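Its record is quoted verbatim for completeness.
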Amino acid sequence: MTFPRLSILGLIAAIGGLPALQATAQTVTSYDDCIATAQSAPGSGLSVADAWYANGGGDAARHCRAMALAALGSFAEAARGVEELARMTNDIAGQADLYAQAGDLQMAASNPVDARRLFDQALALEPENFEALDGRSRAAAAQRDFAGAITDLNRLLWLVPDDAEVLSLRAAARRQTGDRAGALADAEAAVAADPSSAVAYFERGAIRAITDLNRLLWLVPDDAEVLSLRAAARRQTGDRAGALADAEAAVAADPSSAVAYFERGAIRAITGDREGARRDWTQAEQLDPGGETGRLAMTNRQRLP
């Protein structure tokens, strides 16, 4: 039993972007027809898949149902359906692909622990499964296990040595572990491999910016503005702990800095501390009434739930 690997992002992107098909439970007789319905009209696709299964559609209908659930945003339920199919098949390659797809769905559901378990199962069956290695590296990064992410990205780069996206991912993971030289080397290689890759340029720019700000802070270690700039750079590259530490240091260095409070508020907001963000943005407004930072702080504060 094998099914085509269907990209979750591709499936979601198709919602509303294709003309609605007129397929019904009676007219759908193939996997391709069912998937097309799930893509163009996922609510109908769910009903079609269920009816097709009742009429003998078998495992293909069950997989189509999972894809319709994914298109509806029910990623965890879809993942459970695909995982169950994986357990039922005796085809090792197909089983590995299904476990990898279930892992992708759990990642979409923001469940990196379950996703990593599923990627582990896929790789136990097929150690060089590209999708599973890629997925497990992302799951490891989501759990802030950057060393684990780098291990899988190394294996991926053995398979695809000039892949700009994988090089950029390893650059990001290396940056998170403090290996800035390795991160910059990967980012440079990513830009060389694909000069049109926005991700590669972003990663190289982030590493260069943080490196330059590190040098500047060696000269002016307690400068609130520079600390705030590095906090912003770290926040934008996903280093929330480092960003918060810099923002805290900026506020301590200059309690009259609206920028420092603004940046600390931004970091608190993305880490779920809404009340802390509200207090910081209110303080930024008061320190910079009518100024650009004050206006941005007011806008962000008003958008908080």
